[in-house]
Amino acid sequence: MANGNAKTLGLVAAGSMLEFYEFQTSAIFLSIIGTVFFASSQPEWVRDLQAIALFSVSFIFRPVAAIIVGRIGDREGRKRSFLLTLLLMAIPTIAIGLLPTYAMIGAGAPILLLFLRIMQAMASAGELSGAAVFTNELAGVNKRGLASGSLYGAIHLGYFLAAAVAAAVTTVLTREQVLSFGWRIPFLLGGALGFVALIARRKLHESPAFLAARKDARRKAPLSTVVRDHKLAMFSVVLLAGYVGSTIAVIYTFTPLFLQTAYHVKTSTTAWVIMVAFLFLSASAVLWGWIADKVGATRALRIGATCGIAVVCSAGLLGVDPRSPQALLGWFALASLAMGNVGCAFQVGTSLFPASIRLTGFGVSYNLGLALFVSTVPLSLTILSHRFGATAMVAYIVVAAALGIAATLIADQLLRNAPADTAAGIQG
Asked: Which of 154, 239, 283, 381 is the most exposed place for a label (fewest CB within 10 A)?
């Protein structure tokens, strides 16, 4: 990858890191949020369930935001949509860090938190899809896998940063101090980083693919064109989003909460374990991107999905003790090496739409998939895990992997008749 493109990728990833930072911060402190923003007279599991529901419902609004941001990005430019989504992410992240708690204003606290979570979800809907589209438009034909993997690896450093900040806060402060003020620190820091990234991102230039398709894009209504002419491509990306979102949500969002509630693993322990796991995930995403350029992105996705099934099903055979930090770290590291393949979904999904409607097509489809599949993960797994324990999580990941494999088969079919420069490096 040329130095100029690498620098641009860094600017793109720096902004997208905030989405992942905020998402993981909310996940790590989900139990704390349940305690702080809901009535203390309720049982702990009820507060946790309410926090999970609040966390999940924001996904429903992502497709709506993707329509708006996609139209701006396809008609006015990728850069303009980038700046807008990052600004709308940074503001509510800081605001959450300043929110009054239930003890201060009662039921108004969770209502305000829900409003800000919806704002974040709507901003992030355009942020991630915009980054995926821009990166693949910028990369050379034979480097799209490495570019997508590098982007995915870089933005997952946001997960790492969130886990690192959470680990530091929960290690240095007592639980009483975390409940009092410590939970605010990661949100305030994330919002500040968002504004720094916003200033840096102003240096971006438009992608050549958008500039070439700009006149055609302005003559079209992006959403109606996507729905009318690209239904099968939309379906493929919806399934890809189900695979990516569900596996990541189960392993890195729900599992830490499950460990804390079912096995009473300390929040600081899960934060440190997840922090290291995200380093493995970032590195493996780059590796899987390189593999995708060698064997094809759809084949890399199928191989990775199969590896993921093997890893999650092996926990019992490996005798993983959920109370052992060393055992947890080993399992999460292994899972992260397998899960790095999900970055290939960006390369596959963005290739299924022409440049004039690409951001709308990929963004709406991907976020619709997240809304359909990921929004249900925390709530349904909370209920299922009470009855079936960790088996429910294994089953979820197996089903998610099946969605990913099905999506790649559809993509292969669609790309057989695509232009050579579009299909290059995708089919396996």
From this structure: 283
